[in-house]
User: What shape does this take?
Amino acid sequence: MNRSLLVDQLPGLRRYARALTGNSWAADDLVQDTLERACTKWQLWVAGTDLRAWLFTLMHNLYMSQRRAARVAMNSVSIDELESELQAPASNSDDPLDISRCLQRLPADQRAVLLLVVLEDMSYKEAAKVLAIPIGTVMSRLSRARSRLRELMESGRPAPSESATGQPPALRRMK
Assistant: This one.
């Protein structure tokens, strides 16, 4: 594997990892783990195929494995042991959520599709290949992710251009 080919993919990998994890430290660790796996499994990559898709597939699979492992570890900790550390953050319903926090509130499968298609500008076909799911599933998850993200971003805000009767405006079909 040519080193420059791998280095060229670093900005996209870091961007995707940061959006997936919502944490720069965790993102750097995820990129490092992805690169380590790519180096140890380089013989599995077929020269001439899409290196970017292969690396994003490695990253996605690592991320999902880490999430599963974290869930198992969390299940083994007693809530009573952590009771004093668990406090709800101060909440002001007038404060809108930022996009990063809204992304983190999306289900992981929807967030992954949204980030690959919107942030990384992958086609539905490329995203389907990275996530190992059918194209129809990509489109469905993307639609649900966009709808949910819109709901999260608009929560706590008045709906735009509501009429004096309090009714939302009529929907328009856009192509």
User: Anything to note?
Assistant: The CA atoms of residues 69 and 75 lie 10 Å apart. Residues 1-77 form a domain with the Rna Polymerase Sigma Factor; Chain: A fold (CATH 1.10.1740.10). Residues 158-165 have pLDDT under 50 and may be disordered. The chain has two domains: 1-77, 97-157.
